[in-house]
Amino acid sequence: MVMMKRLFIGIPVSSEVARRQVDIWRFDQPLNQNRMSWVNPENWHITLFFLGDTKVEQIDLLQNLIEEAFDGISAVQTGLRGAGVFPDWRNAKVLWLGLASIDSLIPARNRLAESLRQNGFDFGNKPLKPHLTLARIKSLEHRDSLKSLLQQYPQTDFGAVKLDEVVLFESILTPQGPVYQPLFVKRLV
C-alpha cells in the first residue's frame, strides 16, 4: 500500500496587529450572521503550491527542490494591506488580507514551480495571488456586514510582517479544522 500525505508549500505569516483586528471581526455580531469558518492565526500562511495527496517517498525530493530554489534568498519585510474576498463580495468564499509585495520571492517561487513540473508534480496553473486567508465563508446571510467591512478596510495597513521561511507542510484534516504539520523548513537569509 502506498503511503500518502496531503501536502502544500507555504510561507508562515505572523502578525499581532492583524490578529487583534481579526479578533474584533470574529466577534462582530452582524458579520458573524454569515456562516464563516475562521482560520486559526497559528495556521496563517501564504500558499505557494498546493500539492494534495503526495507519496511519502517524494518528501525528500520536495525538500531538495525547495532547498535549491530558495538557496541564498533573503527574508522579506512586507506589509499586510487591505481586506478583500475571493471571488467577489456577492459570491464571497474567502475573506483575506493582502500583502504589499513579495516581488523578491517570485523568481525563487518560479524556479520551484519549474522544478516541481519537471519532477511530475501537479499543482494547477492558478497564478499566485499572495494573500492571507482569514476565514472561509460558507454562506452569506448578512451580506451588508461583509460589504461594510470591505468598504472600510480596502487599503488599511495591518502592520509589517517578516517572511523568513518556506515550509513543506502536511495538512491533516480533523473535525476541529486542519492541522498544519511542518515537514521541512527552509530558512531565508
Describe this structure in words.
- The chain is α+β, with helices and mostly antiparallel strands and 189 residues long.
- It has one domain: Alpha-Beta Complex (Cyclic Phosphodiesterase, Chain: A), CATH 3.90.1140.
- Helices cover 24% and strands 39% of the residues.
- It has helices spanning 16-26, 59-69, 106-118, 143-152, and strands spanning 4-12, 35-38, 45-55, 76-86, 94-99, 131-139, 157-163, 165-172, 179-187.
- A hairpin with a 6-residue loop joins strand 8 and strand 9.
- Helix 2 (59-69) runs antiparallel to helix 3 (106-118).
Q: Number of folding domains? A: 1
CATH class: Alpha Beta
Coarse morphology: globular
CATH architecture: Alpha-Beta Complex
SS class: alpha+beta
Secondary structure elements and their pairing?
Elements: E1 4-12, H1 16-26, E2 35-38, E3 45-55, H2 59-69, E4 76-86, E5 94-99, H3 106-118, E6 131-139, H4 143-152, E7 157-163, E8 165-172, E9 179-187
Antiparallel strand pairs: 1-3, 1-8, 2-6, 4-5, 4-7, 5-6, 8-9
Helix pairs in contact: 2-3
